Amino acid sequence: MTSPAKDSPFLRACRREPVPCTPVWYMRQAGRSLPEYKQARAGIPMLESCTKADLITEITLQPMRRYHVDAAILYSDIVVPLKAIGFGIDIKAGVGPVIDEPIRDSRDLERLRPLEPGDVPYITEAVGTLVRELGDRPLIGFAGAPFTLASYLIEGGPSRHHDRTRAMMYAEPGLWNALMERLTAITISFLEVQVAAGASAVQLFDSWVGALSPSDYRTFVLPHTGRIFAAMEGYGVPRIHFGVGTGELLGLMRHAGADVVGVDWRVPLDEAASRVEAGTALQGNLDPAVLLAPWDVVAARAAEVLVQARIAESHIFNLGHGVLPDTDPAILARLTDFVHERSAR
Ligand code: CP3
After folding, report:
1. CATH of the domain at 310
2. How many CB atoms lie within 10 A of CB 99?
């Protein structure tokens, strides 16, 4: 079946085809900074809201009503598939994922059984509804990458440098690889469910993998993320790969099998372009904190990103990480239109 979104500027840019102007979307555009999100979520715990198809649909569409963004991102979370297989995990407001019993030894791996499509019927239902509602605007599906998921499972919650995670990698590589294999299988199923239901692109968030050196990334992470991208290849949907603080890893993240590499705000896009092989589209990379500054600053910085992106084979405008909770939605609306106008060709 051909999706009506197939020729959208976002998907064209992912495929490095010419576009009328640079497509825009924002990581964490759904939720957080929107008053209508807070209203829709009132009294409903975060992870519970991610199991209700009507809420997933509504919250995914909220930013589409406010901004002229070129793609929607599914309202869900990287820990949803873990919760769905019965793993003891929750999201604490203002903190992030917290784990009842962190992974310590091989017996703990039994709590990470494979994910079946029947475990997440609300994802299938919400994606199906969204694809119909969005028409020619693409829906991006996503998952957390095994390293980032493992970091929560091993640390027990958010952490600064992921010391225990890195220690397990070095001290118990067998356990580490077994954990990564289980998470890889879960991630592939979670992405397959979204693509089968009609998602037009997928983004793999390896948010915290910037904690690793290139050689450790190559040894302990790339084989697993590589399997995820290889598994998604046959579906013909663009694969985006993003992490924070990954300046030294951009070439390897592309090498893992991504079509589009997301760049945080630390590496200018012209420099990022030289770190990835030919045939790569770039996504990014305005510092989300810039959006808390006056409009003149926002416009100047966004214009700079567009200039730096000229050398890239293709560019999708985004922030260098997610929208911060205090961001004024009016600024995001204005920024979206500014990028479209500035980049019109
Ligand atoms: O708009 C979107 O991007 C879609 C929804 C989305 C959420 N989480 C909803 C959410 C996406 C893509 C994610 C991914 C996610 N979740 C990542 C990768 C992206 C990144 O930012 O690096 C990570 C690391 C997580 C884990 C997680 N979940 C964290 C660190 C937090 C923040 C805790 C907080 O309150 O600041 C969450 C909670 C979360 N996920 C919220 C939302 C809207 C906030 C929950 C709330 O409003 O109570």
Report:
1. 3.20.20.210
2. 18
